[in-house]
């Protein structure tokens, strides 16, 4: 992920620099402030772009061909997996489930610009959802039977404290 920013005072004034954003209001104008790898300050759009890049990298490593749609669509990528073209929606999830340990909640609704009319993805629109988990640098593969009509499924890294196993989705079962 590369963020572009305006240079500060001195020899960096007016320069556009990859990977480093210089804060011009810093009391130490000569000191660059590296912000691009701090995921806490990323916007939702930047997180989505990062997730797409991670998915593209992993898919290429696995020998799949990655294509991007040229117009706005309900899917982010098209994967050619051995001659089969699949429409793929990519999600970034760093949401931890409150009051639990080892559980991650994934929002599978399409994000509208005004945060209204959010609707879940259906099997008619998307063939697969790939979810990037930044905490563990893993990608989950969700098939239509697991996402069709669902809004926020939960995935677990480790077993529940009450030893419940019925209707639990473990991360290890969905790795891409």
Global structural class: alpha+beta
Domain module count: 2
- Gross CATH architecture of the largest domain: 3-Layer(aba) Sandwich
Give the amount of beta strand, in percent. 15-25%
Shape: globular
What is the overall pLDDT average? 76
Query: How would you sum up the major sheet?
Result: 5 strands, mixed
DSSP summary: helix tally: 2
Low-confidence stretches: 1-35
Remind me, CATH topology of the largest domain? Trna Endonuclease, Chain: A, domain 1
Question: Which CATH top level class of the largest domain fits?
Answer: Alpha Beta
Helix content: 10-25%
Description:
This protein has 176 residues and is an alpha+beta fold. It folds into two domains: 1-37, no CATH class; 43-174, 3-Layer(aba) Sandwich (Trna Endonuclease, Chain: A, domain 1), CATH 3.40.1350.10. The chain is 12% helix and 23% strand. The protein has two helices and nine strands. Strands 3-4-5-7-8 form a five-stranded mixed beta sheet. Strands 1-2 form a two-stranded antiparallel sheet. A two-stranded antiparallel ribbon has the order 6-9. A hairpin with a 4-residue loop joins strand 7 (128-133) and strand 8 (138-142). The longest helix has 18 residues, at 44-61. The two termini are 21 Å apart.
């Amino acid at each position: 992920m590369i963020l572009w920013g305006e240079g500060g005072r001195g020899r960096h004034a007016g320069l556009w620099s990859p990977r480093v954003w210089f804060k011009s209001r810093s009391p130490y104008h000569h000191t660059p402030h590296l912000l691009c790898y701090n995921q806490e300050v990323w916007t939702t759009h930047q997180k989505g772009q990062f997730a797409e890049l991670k998915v593209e990298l992993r898919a290429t490593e696995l020998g799949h061909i990655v294509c991007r749609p040229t117009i706005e669509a309900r899917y982010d990528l098209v994967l050619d997996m051995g001659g089969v073209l699949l429409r793929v929606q990519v999600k970034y999830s760093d949401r931890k489930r409150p009051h639990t340990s080892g559980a991650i909640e994934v929002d599978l609704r399409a994000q509208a610009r005004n945060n209204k009319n959010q609707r879940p993805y259906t099997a008619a629109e998307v063939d697969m959802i790939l979810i990037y988990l930044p905490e563990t640098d893993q990608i989950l593969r969700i098939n239509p039977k697991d996402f069709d009509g669902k809004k926020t499924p939960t995935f677990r890294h480790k077993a529940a404290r009450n030893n419940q196993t019925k209707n639990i989705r473990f991360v290890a079962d969905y790795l891409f």
